[in-house]
Amino acid sequence: MESPPFEPQVDDIAPTAAILTGYDERHAITYLRLLDAEADGADWKEVAKIVLHIDPMREHDRARRAWESHLARARWMTEKGYRHLLQGGAPH
What we know:
By secondary structure, the chain is mainly alpha-helical. The chain has one domain (22-86). The protein has helices spanning 22-26, 28-39, 44-50, 60-86. Helix 3 (44-50) packs across helix 4. The protein is globular, with a radius of gyration of 13 Å. It starts with 21 loop residues before the first helix and ends in a 6-residue tail after the last helix.
């Protein structure tokens, strides 16, 4: 796996596949930033704006969905997805 970009463009909804995807690999840092923000008790609106680059004041529903789905995927990565990384990453 190559080093992921620091701030890649995010989709409106994170993947939900039971396998690691290329999107997951590109967004590993995004997922870590989301988990850090959650651990710090950061407001989801601030996180959406800073980490996901979606302004919740202009696009409230889109920002909320993106934040929720990416945070859920970040949690999945800590529970199951990391195993795929250890086995060589996403299938190509």
